[in-house]
Design a protein that fits this description.
- The chain has about 270 residues and is of the alpha/beta class.
- The chain has one domain: Rossmann fold.
- About 45% of the residues lie in helices and about 15% in strands.
- It contains 11 helices and 9 strands.
- The strands form 3 sheets. A 4-stranded parallel sheet has the order 2-1-3-4, with helices on both faces. Strands 6-5-7 form a 3-stranded parallel sheet, sandwiched between helices. A two-stranded antiparallel sheet has the order 8-9.
- Helix 6 links the parallel strand 5 and strand 6.
- The longest helix is centred in the N-terminal third of the chain and has 20 residues.
Length: about 270
């Protein structure tokens, strides 16, 4: 039976033509034939430039921007999507969104870390927004996986380099190999290639290992987790926990009232 996933990026996809196109091609390649992934980005004008890192490296600004994820998640369920996917390494508002929805919710970072544990004893994460190091380490702790993580380190290049790499990847891939070897020397048996733009670039060019250590296609991980969770719900009736502070869903009408109070009525938020 077909399923439909709402993909939510932390970038303004319309500002990033090469990345947008690479994502579409990658999703078509790795998802099941009956899976439709509908791509969504942040609202145009969210950031001052096409680079979100100047904002999301600050905890407070990332928290404010995460309201777009919450609004998008509510709209995804309202529009009949089967799953909602937070497609960015920091997993903004993952726990809060999961508590709001009845459909499965997956996060790029969490899915990557969980998948890594099936491929090796310990994993390392490479990021091009170095200021996210503390957040990613803290997320691993909250997911119960801190002991499985070797560390989070700077890959040695930036967002602009990754965008340029979509047209000429050779130099960037070699620099990635150098950074990955440092993590491997520290004990990593799986490498998570940080933010989604780097992941899709590496996957597009067939980089799946460094010196025998797997380089995870983190985008594929959340796709497969979303497909699995939808299947579990449909075939076995298994859904997420509904009890406790982080799990019990609030009354939907009250959610609408609170959004309206803060000037974000659900009906007025754009769906694309």
């Amino acid at each position: 039976m077909a399923l439909k996933i709402w993909h939510q990026s932390f970038t303004v996809l319309s500002d990033l033509g090469a990345y947008d196109a690479a994502l579409q091609a990658h999703f078509q390649r790795v998802s099941r034939p009956d899976t439709e992934i509908v791509m969504h980005g942040m609202r145009k004008g969210t950031y001052r430039t096409n680079y979100p890192g100047n904002d999301i490296r600050h905890a407070a600004l990332q928290h404010l921007h995460a309201t777009q994820f919450i609004e998008a998640a509510l709209r995804a369920e309202h529009e009949g999507f089967d799953a909602f996917a937070i497609s960015t390494l920091p997993d903004p508002a993952l726990r809060e969104i999961r508590s709001l929805l009845n459909i499965p919710v997956v996060g790029y970072g969490e899915s990557a870390m969980l998948s890594s544990c099936l491929l090796g004893a310990r994993f390392g994460v490479l990021v091009f927004i170095n200021e996210l190091t503390d957040l990613i380490a803290d997320n691993a702790r909250r997911y119960g996986l801190r002991e499985r993580m070797v560390g989070v380190s700077d890959v040695g290049f930036r967002f602009a380099d990754v965008l340029q790499g979509f047209s000429d990847p050779s130099s960037l891939i070699e620099r990635f190999h150098v950074a990955a070897r440092s993590q491997i020397d520290a004990g990593a048996e799986v490498i998570i290639p940080g933010e989604a733009p780097l992941c899709v670039l590496l996957a597009t060019h067939g980089v799946s290992s460094v010196d025998g250590v797997p380089v995870l296609d983190s985008l594929s991980c959340w796709i497969k987790h979303a497909e699995m969770l939808v299947d579990l719900s449909r075939q076995s009736g298994v859904v997420r926990c509904q009890r406790g502070y982080y799990n019990e869903p609030p009354e939907r009408e009250r959610v609408r009232e609170v959004l309206g109070f803060y000037g974000r009525p659900l009906e007025s938020t754009p769906s694309r």
